Known about the structure:
The complex is a heterodimer.
Chain A: E1 4-7, E2 10-13, E3 19-25, E4 31-38, E5 42-51, E6 54-57, E7 64-66, E8 76-78, E9 87-94, H1 99-102, E10 105-106, E11 110-114
Parallel strand pairs in A: 2-11
Antiparallel strand pairs in A: 1-3, 3-8, 4-5, 4-9, 5-6, 7-8, 9-10, 9-11
Chain B: E1 3-6, E2 10-14, E3 19-21, E4 23-26, E5 31-38, E6 44-50, E7 56-58, E8 64-68, E9 73-78, E10 87-95, E11 104-105, E12 109-114
Parallel strand pairs in B: 2-12
Antiparallel strand pairs in B: 1-4, 3-9, 5-6, 5-10, 7-8, 8-9, 10-11, 10-12
Amino acid sequence: xxxxxxxxxFQVLKTGQxxxxxxxxxxxxEYMSWYRQDPGMGLRLIHYSxxxxxxDQGEVPNGYNVSRSTTEDFPLRLLSAAPSQTSVxxxxxxxxGTGSFYGYTFGSGTRLTVV
Amino acid sequence: xxxxxxxxxxVSVSEGTxxxxxxxxxxxxxxxxxxxxxxPNKGLQLLLKYTSAATLVKGINGFEAEFKKSETSFxxxxxxxxxxxxxxxxxxxxxxxxxxxxxxxxxGTRLHILP
Lengths: 115, 115
């Protein structure tokens, strides 16, 4: 099925551990992004990419790292997990230059708990 | 700079009565506006979008929204609420010329449907 696939769906980490949240899309979308969702805060942009090899910071980038080696994949790395990173993470994509017209396609989310 | 304000964090209506979820935006240029819905423990689904065509926009599941430039509003309505409409709704703004495809989320309105 065409769309955005996120793995894992759930994850529990200990403080200080590192991990990678995976995001893949099969729609040949150039634009991909990561959001975190916290109660009462809406969705806040962490990092985004307008194409392979190009990434940029969003609103809340600290503690996260991204890379974009292919059009399909956009992994999000937590370098040293902290309890403040407990959240639900969403990956989204859109054809480049059209996000403002067509909206985004979202993955189903990764629920991360850091203890 | 663009921003979006959802005026109510929670709205409760009885099944069969009208729904009104309020959204005001701020944008320096011609905005594109969206409403997304998130059912419990699910990803985000696009309900409808306004992209400088007709000011009254019809979406899925009987929802519609009206773009009012003079009031900088994009309120979401439905004539008759159904139990399945219980979810969180996000108003989203993007500027039409937006090179980076960035979108800004409101903080969300949780819709409760009373039997």
